[in-house]
């Protein structure tokens, strides 16, 4: 995808490269080619899609970067999350559930975006310093906040 191997990246540059690769590899361009070329196009186009979606979002990008270093964060294995953090998340989740207006949900969403932006900066710094355990712990927190962000989006759709 012609990206630097860093946590922060230029999303516009990533998108341009994605579109460039898809113009060249998309299966629609290979309808009159051999079966082998069509299959190659399909597999390579799928890989480009996967790479793009992985790199586009900070959480999946960070998890991928840790995986490249031999670390994985498995679902349900964040036993290291401290009680205070988990209580805070429970309160935020309850607030989302109890939000009566789009404004209330938006406020929670904006707070969550701020926390995600802060985590993004901290993860970037940890990865630049090769502090993989710190990056791993911060990415685990990011997973929780990303889930809250999705829950807020669902709540806002309910108001429509």
UniProtKB/TrEMBL annotation:
It is found in: Cytoplasm; Mitochondrion. The keyword Iron does not apply. The keyword Chaperone applies. Keywords: Chaperone, Cytoplasm, Mitochondrion. InterPro entries: HscB, HscB_C_sf, HscB_oligo_C, J_dom_sf. Residues 82-153 form the Co-chaperone HscB C-terminal oligomerisation domain. SUPFAM superfamilies: Chaperone J-domain, HSC20 (HSCB), C-terminal oligomerisation domain. One of its GO terms (cellular component) is mitochondrion. Transmembrane segments: none annotated. GO terms for biological process: [2Fe-2S] cluster assembly; protein complex oligomerization. One of its GO terms (molecular function) is protein-folding chaperone binding. NCBIfam families: hscB (TIGR00714). PANTHER family: IRON-SULFUR CLUSTER CO-CHAPERONE PROTEIN HSCB. Belongs to the HscB family. This is Co-chaperone HscB C-terminal oligomerisation domain-containing protein.
């Amino acid at each position: 995808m012609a990206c630097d191997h860093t946590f922060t990246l230029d999303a516009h540059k990533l998108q341009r490269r994605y579109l460039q690769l898809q113009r060249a590899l998309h299966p629609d361009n290979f309808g009159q080619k051999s079966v082998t070329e069509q299959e190659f196009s399909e597999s390579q186009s799928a890989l480009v899609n996967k790479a793009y979606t992985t790199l586009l979002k900070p959480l999946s990008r960070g998890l991928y970067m840790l995986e490249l270093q031999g670390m994985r964060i498995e679902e349900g294995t964040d036993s290291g999350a401290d009680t205070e953090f988990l209580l805070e998340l429970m309160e935020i989740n309850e607030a989302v559930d109890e939000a009566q207006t789009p404004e209330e949900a938006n406020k929670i969403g904006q707070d969550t975006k701020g926390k995600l932006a802060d985590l993004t900066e901290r993860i970037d710094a940890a990865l630049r310093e090769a502090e993989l355990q710190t990056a791993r712990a911060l990415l685990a927190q990011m997973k929780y906040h990303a889930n809250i962000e999705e829950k807020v989006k669902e709540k806002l759709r309910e108001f429509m």
